[in-house]
Each structure stands twice: as C-alpha cells, then as structure tokens.
C-alpha cells in the first residue's frame, strides 16, 4: 500500500475526454480544480482526448453515383477538423489559468468513442480518466449505451464520471 | 463556469464507501493522495460510509423453531458490528497521516449497498463519491449487478471508481 501511494505521488497523467458538450467542459474544470493542484508534490500532465466519429463508408455510398463526390468528402473532413479545433479552443479557455503548473497534450482519435477512449487510456499510460456524463433518458441510454459506463467498467485506471449540476 | 469553479474550491465533502475489501482500502488511499491535498485552498471532510447488509427475516426463519434463537440473533448482530469496527480500524490506519488536514466522519447504513450509498450521498451533501471496484467476472457481474455502476449512474455528484492495480 505504501509503495502504491508513493508511486501515485510522483507523476500524474490525466486523460480528459472532451467533446462538444457542456458536460465535458464542466468535467475538465472539475478535474483542474480537484486533481491538478499547484502545491501537490505531483507533476501533472493533462491529456485532452477528442474522438471523431468514424467516416461513413464513402465507397459503398459512392456507388449511388452522386452524393459523395470528392468535394463533399473533403468538406466533411474539413468540418470534422473545424469541430476538433473549436472544442480544443474551448478547452484552452477552461485550462489556461492552470497552464503554468502542468503540461498539456492534445490527442485526436477516430472511431467508436468507447473503444477509442479505452484504447487511448492504456496506450497513453493514463493514471486517471475523467469524463463528463450526459444525462440521457432511459430509452436513449438503453439504445446507445453509455460511453462513461463502458469505460468505467473496462479501463484499468481510476475513472471519474462528472455530472454537471443543474442550474 | 467561473462561479462553479469558485464554489468547488471552498469546501469538499468526500464520501468513501468502505467495506472488507482490499479494493475499498486502495480507493481510500487513492482518494487521500489525489483529492485531499494539504496545500489546496479547499477544506476537506472525509466521510467513511460502511453499509451493513439488511438483517435476515428472523421471524419467518424463526418459525422453523430452532435456528434463530435470541442468542443467535444477538451473536449475528455483534458479528456485524465487529466487522464495522474492524473495517473502520483498517481505514484509520490508511488515513492517519492525513488526519491533521481534514475532518473525518464515520457513517454506518443498513440495507442494499446500492440504495444506501445513493441515499447517503444525497443526504450528506457529498461533493464527491469514491468507490473501489471489484473485478468480478462476467457472470457474477451479470447476476449481482455492480454497485459502482449503479451509483455512477444515479448519484448526482462526481463519482470516482478506483480499480486496484494487479501486483
């Protein structure tokens, strides 16, 4: 136990999954206030992880012959990256006051959010995963499953699920 | 967002669900290292929550006429409280180095762990709930459900699910 505590003190790699939602920005600010602390003996690295949905199957749709001309594909690609940049810019505004006391990395993955996040946490050697929680109703949750549920179950490191308080 | 961050800094009531498991003691030590920090501007209150299982239905079993004599009931009650005390004593050993920088409260509930924990978090005005995670196999999880899953879904405050790394 002692050694484990010692190891935890040394360095902390915190992965925060960010997306377009208010919930994820709240989770990020919770993380900064509660897990990144200026006077801790721990050096923190904040890793922002954004997951782009997988591209649609252009080829099969292309067979229809008119919808996915190269221009449209290019436009969708560009739209995807604009979204990434806007989310990262919002995140920057949230963490800017903490930049001097931690390092920041930004990662973008593509695919099913559940799988990408679980894979990234392992690959990046994360010590903590922080996620916002969308409060879907019963049916949407039953249909979609919940990304945070899945990750809390499958990821090996501690997982923080942050709900945004209702104003 | 700014106000929310401000509010989070002021005081932090952290509920840690403890039981007989190594996992819950690891979760407690993770919590102390990562959430209770001496130099934070935040004053922390650590609330240890132990849930005793509900008593068996003595009356219906008593009808059998021999098993649950009053002595046996008393012995089981005593065994239950011995368990509570031993868990709290183990917890004390884990948090003793942090006692000077936080206040500690101990709570014991009785009933189904899921419901008791969710109810207590609300009633105690918790800002964070910390729980260990038992890595059951698929069948046990499917049968029993997971207390941490349930709480992460139903509790309003941020929930930390801590897995104990395999040595």
TrEMBL record, chains A, B:
The name this protein goes by in its record: UspA domain-containing protein
PANTHER family: ADENINE NUCLEOTIDE ALPHA HYDROLASES-LIKE SUPERFAMILY PROTEIN
Domain UspA: 12-163
Stored InterPro entries: Rossmann-like_a/b/a_fold, Universal_stress_UspA, UspA
Coiled-coil segments on the chain, per record: none
TM stretches of this protein: none
Species classification: Eukaryota, Viridiplantae, Streptophyta, Embryophyta, Tracheophyta
Annotated CDD domains: USP_At3g01520-like (cd23659)
Pfam families: Usp
